[in-house]
């Protein structure tokens, strides 16, 4: 690392702020990819701001965090329904599943998504994003001038806590198929991944392989969660007046049974990954965290220049 600590941290923050600025217009326009990318950008900013601003006084980082959290919440409910709709459309392509039942679920999801999108737009309008960007730029300037290493301690503590949380969640999930406990494993894996991404961005090399490995676990459990959400929408349609059509309940039951079987198949795959999850946690504890805590030994610029001048003078004297 050749840049000063302040420049490294400000660069990380500005890169993440730029990602939000880039994707938010597409999210407001209602594009699925835009909503997803903007939400990821807010989550990464929520991860970065409190860590990078540790021991940095008068930066108004807390106000920026509140606005970012509002954006995450505004985008979250619509994003989940976008994913649910994609899964339902995948199921529609499976020939042996009853299409009328899936079309009914699809209509239900679209109606709910459209309703939530109106709420999302109202919430987004309530957040002054331009002011948020200015605050983030101001925070980046403060980081640029700072030489404190407090962010390393904050990041180390955060990653340590999240690795322990994932370890505990995996232990509690055990071998039985329990959707709620598996969901907690997924959330613990996701939050640990965000911390590891921040470590990787700061130059901690062992963090990048851990990010890739934990993402595979998160993707599998994410798919399982998405199917569980589809099951909830199937149940909602079964309880609605639209299910009064003759044979509709039986068709919806057939879809629900298929989805349940897929969930159990994914659970079996998760159990096969249990050893690799523990290996990831061990890697984080033994390699990533010590590397985070190991501050780079950087000589002040004036000292470097003085030593170079002295070396040149010695060479000329010879």
Overall spatial form: flat
Q: Which percent band covers the strand fraction? A: under 5%
User: Share of helix among residues?
Assistant: over 70%
Which structural class do you get from the secondary structure elements? mainly alpha
Given the structure, what is the number of helices?
11
Oligomer: single chain
Radius of gyration using CA atoms only: 24 Å
* Average pLDDT score: 87
Unreliable runs: 1-6, 297-306
Number of strands: 0
Q: How do the helices and strands follow one another from N- to C-terminus?
A: HHHHHHHHHHH
Instruction: Measure the end-to-end span.
Output: 33 Å
The main sheet comes to: none
Report what the structure shows.
It is a single chain. With 318 residues, the protein is mostly helical. The chain contains eleven helices and no strands. The longest helix is centred in the first third of the chain and has 32 residues, at 61-92. The relative contact order is 0.11.
Write a concise keyword list for the protein shown above.
82% helix, 318 residues, mainly alpha, 0% strand, 11 helices, disordered N terminus
